[in-house]
Amino acid sequence: MVRALYSISAALAFASNVFLVSLLFLPNTTPVNAHLWPKPVYECHGHRTIQLAKDFRFLLPQDSHPRLVSGAARFRNRILKSNFFSPVPMDPALVALEDRSQVDDIKLESIKIEVDKNTSDDELGPETDESYRLLIATDEDAKAPFDIDDIQCHQMSNNPFPRGVRGIIRAKSLYGALHGMETFSQLVTKNPETGTKEIVRAPIIIHDRPLFSHRGLMLDTSRNYISMAAIYRTIDAMSMNKFNVFHWHIADSQSFPIALDDQPSSSTSFSQGGNSKDEIDDELPLSQLASKGAYASDMTYKKKDIANIVDYAMSRGIRVIPEVDMPGHAWSWSRAFPEITTCLDGYPSYSRFSAEPPSGQLNPVVPKTYKVVQGVYDQILPLYKDKYFHAGADEVNINCWNNTESIIEYMKTNDIARTDAGFDRILNEFVSKQHDMLRQQGRTPIVWEEPLLNHELKTLKQNKDTVIQVWTSAQNIKNTVKKGYKVIAGSADYWYLDCGFGDWLGNWTQGRSWCDPYKSWQKVYSFNPIMGLTEKEAKNVLGGEALLWSEQVDDTNLDVKLWPRAAAVAEVLWSGNSDDSATQLWNGPDQTLDSLRSIEALDRINEQRFRMVSQHISAEPLQPLWCVQHPGHCLWPIYDAKPEGQPY
Amino acid sequence: MDPAASPSGISSSSSASSSSATRATSRQHIYGAEKHSDESGETGNIKNRKIKSSSNGYVASYWSRYWKHYIAGGTVLVALIVLIVLLILKPWNKYPMAPLHNDAVKALPDEQPIWPIPNSFSYGVDSVLIDPDFHITVQSTATGAPLAAGSYPILEKAIARCMDRLQLKRNTTISLWAPDLESNSHTVPSGPTLSELVILVENAQATLEYGMIESYSLDVTTKQKIVGANTFKEYDQGLDKRGPGVGEDQVEQERVQQDGSVVGHAVLKATTQWGVIHGLETFSQLVRATPESAESTGAIAAPSLTQKTDNPLDIPNTPWSIQDEPRYSHRGILLDTSRNYFPVKDIIRTLEAMSVVKMNVFHWHVLDQQSYPLVSKTFPELSAKGAERPDLVYTHEDVAAIIQYGEERGIRVLPEFDAPGHTASWGRAFPNITVCVDKQPHAQYAAEPPAGQLDPLEPFTYTVLDGLVKEWAAQFPDSQVHMGGDEVSLNCWRSSERLKDYIRHPSHRKDYEKALPPTVTPLSSSQASSPSKSDLLMRRTGSGSQSGEDRLLEVYLDRAVAMFLEQDKRPIVWEELALEHNVKLPDSAIVQVWKSASNAKRVIKQGRPVILSSAEFWYLDCGHGSWLIGSQGQSWCGYSSWQRVYSYRLTDQLNAEQQKMVYGGEVCMWSEQTSSSNLDSSLWPRAAAAAEVLWSGTQDDQGQNRPLLHAAKRLAVVRDRLVQMGIAAAPLFPSWCGKHPEACLA
Questions:
Q1: How confident is the model at residue B573 (pLDDT cuts 50, 70, 90)?
Q2: pLDDT of res. B542
Q3: Contact B726 A254 (CB under 8 A)
Q4: CB-closest option in B4, B632, B728 to A522
Q5: Taking the alpha carbons of A518, A523, A525, A529 in that order, is the dihedral positive or negative?
Q6: Could you give a GO molecular-function term held by this entry (chain A) (predicted)?
Q7: Which of A1, A196, B228, B384 is most buried as measured by Cβ atoms within 10 A of its Cβ?
Q8: Best mutation site among A520, A613, A638 for testing chain B: the one with the most B CBs within 10 Å?
Q9: CA distance B572 to B570
Q10: 3-state DSSP call for residue A139?
């Protein structure tokens, strides 16, 4: 099955690429567009087409970090091999201005990469400075004004290229340089007529930095298994859109795909297991979590796989934050350790105990629970270095615990009332122990919003550095930052990419997905994570995440569900969704539809979609190709401003 | 992270229906604005859109004027009336749920989830092993002698495909959904061996056409039926008496070889090669692969899904006896290749998938307003200028390859030449045969951009059309052709001075019509003798006087219909021509219903047969958001889950006589937001759900509703089957549910 899925995705990618290559044939000689996605914070262009030298190369500083070296090689390879050019025609007004007289003479031989050694972090982290500047200009211009922050476009745009052209990417960190190279790769386009690689609208200055430091994509690999190949492909696609966090929702109720090693006896490093009596450090058969809880032996992630993903992602400027969801969403643990789980009711009563089948939660009063959790953390945490670990804690079902004898007994013994507050105390015990394990290993926990907003856990009040991931509504973003917590924003109303595909449960023929309807890219693009916040509050929003839960997703449709809609999230988080985003977003205006730049963005995201397809990512089409080829002709009627009879 | 999954999944049916009622209203509303723009001739334009969209405002003002009356006089009364109306109409009962369980419906064994489910079947408790030397032979029903080599090319290919499928089962994975996956209790099957499948076919060269005989019967047993000489004849006499075990003179005995061992025996009988093709598909689905057990391979407990093995094959639960025939003769998929272009291999792959679920019509919506990708030898300019790019076209060779590929699988390729609306792309080559091309704002002149329609008063229109119809008729062998006719924008025509003059001034019409070719092309004598020519009888679809606009539409239709009839093509049209215009249509015309499911009855009442593909159930492109930018709106039609696709009752509210007028149905894949990258996952496995409705019906032969639980388990396997064949069908639910269907399908 998995192999079949592989071959399909490979075939699809190959097919779409062949298709695209054949697509790259335009009858006329107009210059070819090169839109950027996500849009840089600041860019200015001249009107001159230059050529990319056939032996173009990136010039790296001496002793460059291996990630920079491999990144430069990767981008060079992509730029030189790619046959991509945009199916979106260039604006006729710009075509008229474009000067192609020097296209055969002026060749860009190289881009010099300059990375600020002093501030450069080798390891990517939440504090990493990802800004970069990209300059493609005459020798003189390249020297003079590049360091000036508020450089004006007109200072450069009229200069011809008397003696050639220079390219520079200057960044504070190697990860900023990688973003700069991504931007540069999008500027290079193949001219279908001559077959050469060109850069239109030079000279070019770009000053760019992200609005948010946490620009994530969450992928659930538990509901359905996602192959390693598909994850690698997803990371490639993320880097094309300057995402920097891969939130890997790796285990959930349906399956536990992490293949861990058994823990030999008496190596338990943790002994806070509740009111433990006589704990024997038995061998913990942690390998059974996957061998019994995964879908199949080859539908697992080995530790080496995870380490490889982490390394692969880091090389592309992407941090990996794994999530092993608990104490809810834990049926899959019960295959190996039935004694640490409770309310494993399947049909028909799962709905009493969980949001979806199968129900099953960790039992917080069983000491062994903590040994197993510790054992899992002991093996997963060394696989990656990020400051954060996602501790889950969403949708904990209190009714489940209220029906578990051992928990009721424990509450009686400890004189805890069986009220909401009492169960919050139980949850608090679990969460605080769990978070202690993470903190002991230097990790800051991220939790979903419920432990704070629904349960108001004491441990969160004591540890205000805990990051809260909001997933329900924009209002809860405000509620959370008001309490002084840092927030990762998301919203099921906007950024849940799995919605709108019917109810996968049941015989309800009218059934809709719970978060119906489907989020169109326009809807995705319209979400502003800091809308309605004060400037001070907004500073506590670290960023946001596009989320894809996999009840109805696996390798066959992963790409089409993610892309290009996740790219819309990426742009909102990188440079905002309105033209004055850099200022407006921070001021948190209430945006109307008109102030969004989705109309302007359409051409660029259409182009980005085709660019991704050319890189073997099966992004779905947003419009008929006719609309892509005829900008401004497929607008919602109130925007139909194109005068009658005007040729396009 | 699905907090509301359970609330929504289990909320009461009344709240369900009220929310769906709201949805329906809003859908109607958007629909009215976008798709239905020319219903009254005026309603497409922005002004009218505003009137429509401000209906809430209308209600509000009404309310503000009369609220005192309500409050004072009859709030309670109004509430009661609403309640009573709701109770009488029971909108929530309109499409009753398919039952989850229904023990009265006979289930297939879990390991043989045949899809679509056969009409009638029985099975036992034995099994036969597929011999490594297993082979398939073809005999004539009449003589019992093997058919002459080369006399059944289509069957030869079907047999080769069947053998490939068995090989695939030998070599590749077990199904992820196999219910016994966890137990590891596989035992290597044993039993008598089956070394031959005998095909008995009456006519291996039947024509591929609407109404072709597709029935078959399949028996797999270790017993041998000693049948009376008359049995086959009896079988020949018609479908009604078809089936084994009918003769009283039969005795059964085990087939025993000379060495005393019992051997299996399999017979597939069919009238035509089309029935055989379906029977072979069923046969391959009866065969089970049994991978070596996990213990014996030393794997860890969970079984591997990627291991290449040489799995033993067997057919469990013998003796099998299956008698099968389709409920409907027209079982199709519509694919739009104009909004976005699909390479030929995408179409080929779709045909392959269709054959797995016994669909038999590929409705090729090849032309539309966005592009003209069909190469014409008569008028090469059309695709040269009208295609998205000169290379994104279908050549004559491409078309022939697609038709042949379909024929080898018993699939008719039914082309649609949508006109006179949706024809902006024709105007790229011949601007003078179209009007209002690219006119803005597009919403006033077409359902979607770009606007543009054929000019019915331009003589050259008919020169082009006549040339094309002749070329198409030669290119596409099917005896039916879809001539479109949907979403004609009368407002577009009104934007032309000449057409407006024709519409407004009846006295001027004769002059305009004089310049056009005659309405009915004289028939040659041979054609006149053909019985189908009695269908030339034309009837108006409406009664009463005809508007100038409809008259103009009829000017076009009269001539276009005549051209197709002259080529012996039976026309299919979209429902608007029958229900929204008052125009002449031939009695033979088949009407395809795409709007409300209830429109089927309205068409049938006109005495016309229907093909059903209501957007409420079978538009598989829906629910993907508006693709027009500047809107955060939803698409005009909602997403149909597989459960909803499966619940389309084609004959709902029809009496027995009316039910006969339902020729079948189609799922539709319009391609505004579909291309190579997401075609498979958008179509499959939901199209398979429709395939079972069309082949097996929503009820079994005892009138029992087929339960969703049976369907879910089998459909999950269909999905696996398609994936293994290289079709990227989407998952229905978490893999976990495949092993625990009862838990997920509550």
A1: very high
A2: 83
A3: no
A4: B632
A5: negative
A6: beta-N-acetylhexosaminidase activity
A7: A1
A8: A520
A9: 7
A10: helix
Chain A, nearest residue to B345 by Cα = A15
Residue A42 vs residue A459, higher pLDDT: A459
CA distance B489 to chain A (A): 16
Residue in chain B nearest A257 by alpha carbon: B302
What pTM was computed for the model?
A: 0.85
Q: Which of B302, B388, B438 sits opposite A629 (nearest CB)?
A: B388
Lowest mean pLDDT among A8-12, A118-122, B308-312, B502-506: A8-12
Flag if B735 and A255 touch (Cβ within 8 Å): yes
DSSP H or E stretch at residue B84: helix B75-89
Q: Could you tell me where the beta strands, DSSP code E, fall in B63-103?
A: none
| Catalytic residue check, B657 | no
Closest-CA distance, B649 to chain A, in angstroms, reads 12
Of A520, A557, A644, the CB nearest to B681: A557
A14 touches chain B (CB under 8 A): no
What pLDDT shows up at residue B286? 95
Q: Which residue has the higher pLDDT, B142 or B691?
A: B691
- Please provide the average confidence, as pLDDT, over all residues in chain B: 81
Q: For a pLDDT cut of 90, what percent of chain A falls above it?
A: 64
Cα of A602 to nearest chain B Cα, Å? 7
Residue B524: partners with Cβ closer than 8 Å, 6 or more residues away: none
Q: What is the pLDDT of residue A390?
A: 97
Residue of B nearest to A647 (CA): B438
User: Cα A493–A496–A500 angle (5° rounding)?
Assistant: 80
- CA atoms within 13 Å, Cβ hemisphere of A467: 22
For residue A239, which of A114, A83, A130, A322 has the smallest C-alpha distance? A130
The pLDDT assigned to A187 comes to 96
Nearest to B629 among A472, A598, A629 (CB): A598
β-strand partners of B315: B128
Instruction: Check A636 against B49: CB less than 8 A apart.
Output: no
Residue type, B327: R
Give the per-residue SS3 of B611-626.
Answer: EECCCCCCECCCCCCC
CB atoms within 10 A of CB A285: 17
Give the span between the Cα atoms of A32 and A27, in whole angstroms: 12
Interface TM-score (ipTM) > 0.90: no
Alpha-carbon distance of A250 to A256, in angstroms, equals 8
The model's pLDDT over B609-658, given as tens digits with 9 standing for 90+, comes to: 999 999 999 999 999 988 887 666 778 899 999 999 998 999 988 999 99
Q: Which chain A residue is nearest to residue B722, measuring alpha carbons?
A: A4
A489 touches B729 (CB < 8 A) = no
pLDDT of res. A14: 46
> Once rounded to an integer, what is the mean pLDDT over residues B427-438?
95
How far apart (Å, rounded) are the C-alpha atoms in residues B557 and B571?
A: 11
Q: CA-CA distance, A439 to A203, in Å (whole number)?
A: 50
The amino acid occupying position B128 is V
Residue B10 has pLDDT above 80, yes or no: no
Inform me whether the C-beta atom of residue A637 falls under 8 Å from chain B C-beta atoms. Answer: yes
pLDDT tens digits, one per residue of B481-518: 999 999 999 999 999 999 999 999 999 999 999 999 88
Pairwise CB contact (< 8 Å): B720 & A1: yes
User: For strand A42-59 and strand A107-115, is the pairing parallel, antiparallel, or unpaired?
Assistant: parallel
Out of B626, B643, B724, the one facing A507 most closely (by C-beta) is B643
Cα B579 to Cα B585: distance, rounded to the nearest angstrom: 12
Q: CB distance from A347 to chain B under 8 Å?
A: yes
Sign of the CA dihedral with B668 first, then B671, B675, and B677 last: negative
Residues of A in contact with B634 (CB under 8 A): 517-518, 520
